[in-house]
TrEMBL record:
Gene3D superfamilies hit by this protein: TT1751-like domain
The keyword Signal appears for this protein: yes
Keywords recorded for this protein, A-Z: Signal
Protein name per Swiss-Prot or TrEMBL: DUF302 domain-containing protein
InterPro entries: DUF302, TT1751-like_sf
Superkingdom in the source lineage: Bacteria
Pfam families from the UniProt entry: DUF302
Ranges where the DUF302 domain occurs: 54-116
Residues annotated as signal peptide: 1-21
């Protein structure tokens, strides 16, 4: 009985979760730290708020583990994010926006983020909503500015 309930619960959870969103990746010629500094400056220059900058590699090092350089920037703008959440409050699971900078096994640095249209596709938000296009445009401009 317990196995049946567990399996049924696991199946229900798996089917309720949205599929992984499409990732957009932008190549950088700068190290992770410099790329994130540039992204943070671009975000702040655009009038958005940086909520956190997470250094995953430093966290791994603190746990006596190794991880390639990788940092996550969490940021947003209530003027853009609020209409998304007004359309579907569950969008708060995906907001604020996040961009990951990481170095791959070959030493190449990348910026990666979820495409907002894909990220929000499992919600009651039309794919052609104006704010989705604005989020896509902002992420594209900010990441392009960071790798210049």
């Amino acid at each position: 009985m317990t196995k049946t309930v567990f399996l049924a619960g696991a199946l229900a959870l798996a089917t309720a979760l949205p599929a992984a969103a499409e990732l957009v990746t932008v190549q950088s010629q700068k190290p992770v730290g410099e790329t994130m500094d540039a992204l943070e400056a671009a975000v702040e220059g655009a009038g958005a708020t940086v909520f956190a900058r997470v250094d995953h590699a430093a966290g791994a090092q603190n746990a006596a583990l190794e991880l390639s350089p990788s940092q996550l920037l969490i940021f947003g703008n209530p003027k853009l994010g609020t209409p998304v959440m007004q359309a579907d409050m569950r969008a708060g699971l995906f907001l604020p926006l996040k961009v990951l900078a990481y170095e791959d096994a070959d030493g190449q640095v990348w910026l990666t983020y979820e495409d907002p249209a894909e990220m929000l596709s499992g919600l009651e938000i039309p794919a052609d909503a104006e704010f989705v296009a604005k989020m896509q445009g902002a992420l594209g401009k900010l990441t392009a500015a960071a790798v210049q």
